[in-house]
Amino acid sequence: MELTPETDADTPQVESLYDLCFAPGRKALSSYRLRDEVPPVPAFCSVIRDGDIVGGAIRCWPIRVEDHDALLLGPVAVHPTRQGEGLGGLMIRDVLARAGGAGWPRVLLVGDAPYYERFGFRRLNGVVMPAPTNPDRVLGFGPWAGIRGRVRKRLEALPD
User: Fold this and answer.
1) Which helix (H) or strand (E) is 14 found in, with range?
2) Cβ distance 108 to 73 under 8 Å?
3) Is 30 exposed, middle or buried (0-12, 13-18, 19+ CB in 10 A)?
C-alpha cells in the first residue's frame, strides 16, 4: 500500500470508492453544497494504492468562515476490505501534518467526534455549516478560537 497524490486518472476509481462507502446519495449532503463548482485543493487529495487499485482516498476543499480560510476535509474513504488497517488515519494525519505549513492552519470536517478527536479535532461552537447539518458534528483542527460564522465556498483563486 502506498499513499500518493490523486491524479486525474484516479477519478473514476475514487468516485466509485466514495459511492461504495457512502452510497450514491452522498452528493445530497450539505457539505457537497460547499464543493459544487469548486475544485478540490490538489495538494491535499491523495489515494492509497495497492498496485493499480485505489483502496483509499481523501480530498480537501477550500472554504471560508467569515474572513478566514480553511480546508474542508472529506470525503475520506477506505475500501471495506481494507478497513480497520489504519489507512483512514494515515490519510488524515498526512493532511493535518502538511496543511499548516502550506498556509492552511484550519481544517474543518463534519463527522463523529469520538473518531476524529484522536486526530485533534474538536467541536466548533458558532461555526455553522449549511443546513441540515447537526452542529455537534462540525469539528475543527487548528486555531479556531474566536472564529464564528457561516461556512461558505471559497470561490476566489487559490494562492500558488
Assistant:
1) helix 11-22
2) yes
3) middle
**Alpha helix ranges (H) inside 77-116:** 87-99, 113-116
Grouping H, G, I as helix, E, B as strand and the rest as coil, residue 33 is helix
**Contact yes or no for 126/149 (Cβ under 8 A):** yes
Locate 30 and state its grid cell. 450539505
- pTM over cut 0.90: yes
Contact 65, 151 (CB under 8 A): yes
**Average pLDDT of the segment spanning 74-90:** 95
Task: Detail the DSSP E strand segments found in 27-67.
Answer: 46-50, 53-65
Q: Tens of pLDDT along 13-54?
A: 999 999 999 876 777 777 878 988 899 999 999 999 988 999
